[in-house]
Amino acid sequence: MEPTDEQSLLDEKIKILWEWGQSGGWATLRDAQLVREITQVREMPDGSGHVNPQTLTSRVRALANALYGSQQLPPLLHPEHLSMYGSFVQKNNYFDQQRIDTPAELEALISEFTPKTDHLFRGINEAKFMLYSSMQRNWILNKRETKPTDHQLFLERLMDNARLYCGGLLAKYIETNGGDAGNDVSVLSILQHYSCPTPLLDWTYSFPVALYFAAMGATDAQPTPAREIDNYVSVYYIEEQGFAQAGLREMVAMSIEGNLPLIKEVFQANVEALKERRGIMASFSPTFSDENMNNFANDDAAALRWARASFPGGGLTNYFCQVKHLKRIPNSYFSDQGDDFVRIGLENNPNVINQKGVFAWNSSSTEPMEHVVHEQVIQDNPEANHLYSHCFNIHKSLLPHLRERLPQLGMTDAFIFPEQDQQHLHEVVWAIFDKTAAGFA
């Protein structure tokens, strides 16, 4: 017999009370009588495992209600503290969740989502972790917000050092591998993939890749964890169209359609630079005459074609991808998938290519992605019932099964990390970061 909604809610409240106690809450209780009342809570005599409401005193109910109410709110955020979810109830504030507890449920998930190509996925080895970027974790743990350190200036210096360090070693690597060293996001993506702190969050078009990262480094399931959420890893997913409005393609398209004066300003500067370099061509070709060049510079259609071409170092894509412009955008995402005119140069090493990498941008120095996006939505529409994404919470007892399945899906260490000289690149990007951080010590 299925429990009533009232019974299920009571079970959830007592579970959160118990988890709170196991996580150190018992030590904070100074009321001996209340402690005795809590120890008298029992399950129903029918063996169903549900809480027997007759064994709860009014004071136990009040404490359970208060703790449950605290989980109805998102985790408190602080610039010197990495916040986590205390329960799945609390995680419901930002995500549409589904728990995966059996091999059959996991296999159904793999069958349904492996073929999808229009979804973005992210795997994390702890379900309780909020969606902080690596830069945010570094920023918070090193208390950079309180020193204070200017976040934008730090990122701009990081870009400068990445391009100049060791005679431009990293910039040459990016260009050699088909990236664009003049594009800040292209540079950040390389730093990100070799473990340097950046404001980017890794996502992927591949569900098996997300499963790989959810399993990578995950701890084993515990028989009696302090909190239920401790025994789960997570895979987040969102249909790509859900990111589209905040994506670079949309920004470029909107600029092309609605900000022609801005485009023409940059375009005309490029035409003037071309006039300076035309040299002898102006004397024998009417195409390069002053009149024709001036007409070209004032041709709206030509400016729009130029913006769409977005050639490396000179187009609208690189303009938007500068850190100083991105800092004004709370969140965005970057992808080179598709055949349209916006190319960033993200497929700049074998790791990104095999991992089908996509990157989400979070301009905040300390607030996780789900909170930033939620606050944006609520600011525009206070009545909105907004959830950041879907989330599969996979029980850690399934990790042995998952790790056996991953190679069958083609997800091996050699496939995910095909780059041979991993250690050298790790050392290079960390040297770049340390050099940047030293300038703000």
From TrEMBL:
Span of domain FRG: 115-234
Name of one Pfam family that matches: FRG
Stored SMART domains: FRG
InterPro entries: FRG-dom
Record protein name field: FRG domain-containing protein
